[in-house]
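User: Round two. Same drill as before: sequence, then structure, for each protein.

Assistant: Same drill it is. First protein:
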Amino acid sequence: MKTAIVWFTTDLRLYDNEALKRAITQSESVIPVYCFDDSHFETSQYGFKKSGNFRTQFLLESLQDLDDNLRKMGSGLIILKGKPEVEIPKIVAEYRVRKVFAKREVAFEEKQTESVVQTALFKLRCELDTYSTSTLYHAEDLPFSLKDIPDVFTTFRKKTELDAAVRNVFDQPITIVSPEIPELILPTLKDLGLHFSPIDSRAAIQFKGGETEAMKRLNHYFFETKSLSAYKETRNGMVGEDYSSKFSAWLALGCISPRTIYHEIKKYEKEYGANESTYWLIFELLWRDFFRFMFKKHQTKFFLYSGIKGDKVNSKSLNKKLLSQWINGTTPSEFINANMIELKKTGFMSNRGRQNVASYFCNELNMDWRIGAAYFESQLIDYDVCSNWGNWAYLAGVGNDPRKHRYFNIEKQANDYDKDRAFRDLWLQ
């Protein structure tokens, strides 16, 4: 029997999953697999756990939901733990698999893992087939080659909107033929060197992982509350569940695809009318695309001190006392403190907050921006390698910002976006 493996990574969904769809079409039997990669739970060179408590809890919930949904279709999820290049070939050998289907990666470490897995599979005469499943626009449909993608977002956006189209989604499979797959056994947070941190009750939203929850959130934000129609006016908010879509955590793990969101926006526009707000959510999805394509183009440069610019503005220093004050929300700025306490206690921070705390880190504290980016990587539920490092490089003046040195006046920002002090009072009590 022709058996294939679907190696899930950050595409933890059944709807609009090309790798899964191709595997079902090209094989008689499919084995869904997820590998807890040891390297994701190590301490980075900057001294932070790469995957922190909040994000890992969200991942475990997402995998449980994926297994539940696979079981409804006659399949299930096999969990591996270790190095993917060691663990995946074991399953390949056991089931005599000739092809592994997976999501195509773009960032440096993820590409390296993909490459070593491919080499290990080749020795077993097994192919690795990868598909681009994370972006709104498919790379092949862009109006420029990879090396010619503009480094300025506005130029990229205008040409892409004019000359490219968003592809249709892939339907969810109806049934999946699999060999008998044992009951799901997930590692505990303790097994992964972490511990359970409940999300603080003051959190803007109580995130729960999985495709089921992602679709619930979409339905709530679009069709139940019609919050989408006011998105552009409210997106800079800081308190409450519906000032922004909050899709980022589910997008980061691929519990929902950007194309699904796009086509649901189009459906919403037909029913309730299009306006600046409905467009603006697509605009934000385009920013997400832009950073992914930038990582394809520039590869390791986004992890270098000098970024893609080659010159540096802030210092390369580390001041442990100032870093601790920033992390724990004990700086001289109440606005920064409120945001950093929110992040520490919930794994989330508003877009407005992120820009301010990053600007403060780079300009006021004048430390190596990568330390801030690495702390975010550990702490954020919605950590996405391209968006996180791309945005930090942008704020540090070494990324895609055409204005060389963007500086936020923190007190002005606090007065503009937290006029009544509701946000500061919530987190500083």
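Second protein:
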Amino acid sequence: MAATQTTAAPPTASEARPKGSRVTIRDPRTGEILWSVPEAEPPAITHAVEVARSAAGQWAVVAPAERGSCLRAAARALQAAASELAGLNSSETGRPVEEALAGIAAGASTLEQYAELGPVHRGHSLRGNQLASDYTVAEPRGVAVLLTPWNDPVAVACGLIGAALVTGNTVVHKPSERCPRLGEALGEVLAPAFPPGVLQTVSGGARVGELLTTAGVDVIAHVGSSASGARIASAAVSTGAHSIRENGGNDPLLVDGDVDPAWAAGQAAIGAFSNSGQICTSVERIYVHEAIAAEFCAALEAEAALRNSNGTVAPLVDTRLRESVHAQVAQAVELGAHAVEGGAVPEGQGAFYPATVLLGCTDTMQVMTEETFGPVAPVQVVPSFDAGLRQACSGRYGLAATVLTGNIAHVQHAIAALPVGTVKVNEVFGGAPGGSAQPRGESGQGFGYGPELLDEFTRVKVVHVAAPPPFALQLPGEQLADMERSDLDQP
């Protein structure tokens, strides 16, 4: 059904005052204040980096297998604390408890994965002289600052923490200011598995993040918005730190004319509405072939209506995000799009926003060009697969893209053309364990997750070892005999 628009409620978002010392968190379901958490002050941030620096030398020489054992202990502790952490996740971000538990299980699995990968992370042998040895050695970079998001806070943090620690770096972790209690609790669970100073947690907003990124550390890893990522990249250039960034995306879904429209609509709904659209690789814009557009759009509208009617769309993290999402939807409607489902700020408390389907979208609309990060599915009908592919290749982001088609030639053309780090064919989410990705454009830089993330947290030293030339060593007795023979040779 068509949606009517209502006036957004006054801001009740989590607040990180630039000159304040506390972060206030509100319940995304009710808008009520949950708690206020102190921000780390500059002396505490400096101290945390100094402690990490002092612990780095000893941690770097610990055998990788022993570091892996510490990660396994951390994974066991995480599993034991799953219920408590899931409750905090749900309270602070609105994520359903069962989904929060799944994220925690993924985090524990990732720690265990890096416990296995760390000891077998190796350099390369090089071809040179037969009587010499040439090889590379991977060494830890030093102190790593990890800045992690709120939308999948435990799984993402564990991926970066696991890779950084198993390769011998020490870590200062700043969780998102939108889930500070969860971040602090996660640190309290994981840190005892490691020697003192190896893993520390500091809380706060953008001010704390800025102080950390300019503190002279060796690695800065960030998962979050492209705007924040750009500032972090600039800071890394100034300090010489290595930066790893997975930032915003505007991921396209390209639907070919030869697929079942109901199935394709189901995939689109999963991609656009899961976690209320608050996933880095959510479907953000849809290009559907005109041959199946009518059936696809009707099925997608029904998918959204079902989610709205059964109450399975969780709230957004706060009303600040909801206002941003609705502003994009309102702009699209003003420019001619039709909200056939959702599209209005609901009455009542909290930061809820309905699953929304927008038809008649064009590239003049922000929902098609910017990251929305909400449960919005904007649809543009295209005359051909090639036309849709050209549209999908547009934009300044380069995180991921999905293609639904039964045509192998179209698959190969899309894989070759799409300027993104990840291409998914016929499944919006999924992938084998240990998969990695390298974002492009304003979506970031460096590998995230998988074995390649170990390379990001290490630097390579090339070693050349050659044998010395032959050298006859004479003993003192032999030298005396030589002298006597020399005397006999005198005339």
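The first helix runs from residue 42 to 60.

User: Perfect.
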